[in-house]
Amino acid sequence: MSFDPVDLVEVQDELKTHEVTFVLWPNAWAKYRLRRKLSWSRRKLTKTSKTHIPQAAGIYTLLIQPGIAKHPSCSYLMYVGKTEDLRKRFYDYCTTEKRVRPKIVRLLHKWPGYIRFCYTRVPPRYLSKVEDALIEAFFPPANSDYPATIRAAKKAF
């Protein structure tokens, strides 16, 4: 593929708008110690989605899945959140971007059609503990409210 210089600048600018930094830290993965078994389900996040997500408390993640060559494992975990109502949160992301944080709005607009809503039921009393453990293990780039241990490490730099 070849570009003339003007096209190359436009392509570089386009690439930069889609650039995301990930932290892949094996030490954090090794420290993940929740005894609670999580059983995940996944739904494509689209405005026309008709799905049977439970009206229950739980943890959810937003993934970007390109679907290239039907590769089964190519996903980018972008966000971890908790909610008292998984179904409501799913439909909030499908329909009401005004109430969503700026990083999430950006995520929804940059990768429409490629976002998956993955969720697991978790009793309300464990939501914060499970969410914090997953954020500490994954360092999702669209999260901004990290647990204290991560905030302290990030501020050190």
Strand content: 15-25%
Helix content: 25-40%
CATH fold naming of one domain: GIY-YIG endonuclease
What's the end-to-end separation, in Å?
39 Å
Mean pLDDT: 85
Quick one: overall form? globular
Largest sheet, spatial ordering of strands: 1-4-2-3
| Secondary-structure class | alpha+beta
The CATH class name of one domain reads: Alpha Beta
Total count of helical runs of at least 4 residues: 6
What is the strand tally? Answer: 4
- Rg for CA atoms: 17 Å
What is the CATH homologous superfamily assignment of one domain? GIY-YIG endonuclease
- Detail the poorly predicted runs: none
Q: Give the SSE order as H and E letters.
A: HHEEEHHEHH
Q: Major sheet: size, sense and barrel closure?
A: 4 strands, antiparallel
Level-2 CATH architecture of one domain: 3-Layer(aba) Sandwich
Verbal overview:
- There is one protein chain.
- The protein is built from 6 helices and 4 strands.
- The protein has helices spanning 5-17, 26-31, 86-95, 102-110, 127-138, 148-155, and strands spanning 41-44, 58-64, 76-83, 115-121.
- The protein has a 4-stranded antiparallel β-sheet with strand order 1-4-2-3.
- The mean pLDDT is 85.
Summarize the structure.
The protein is an alpha+beta fold and 157 residues long. It has helices spanning 5-17, 26-31, 86-95, 102-110, 127-138, 148-155, and strands spanning 41-44, 58-64, 76-83, 115-121. It is globular and about 55 Å long.
Outline the fold blueprint.
Elements: H1 5-17, H2 26-31, E1 41-44, E2 58-64, E3 76-83, H3 86-95, H4 102-110, E4 115-121, H5 127-138, H6 148-155
Antiparallel strand pairs: 1-4, 2-3, 2-4
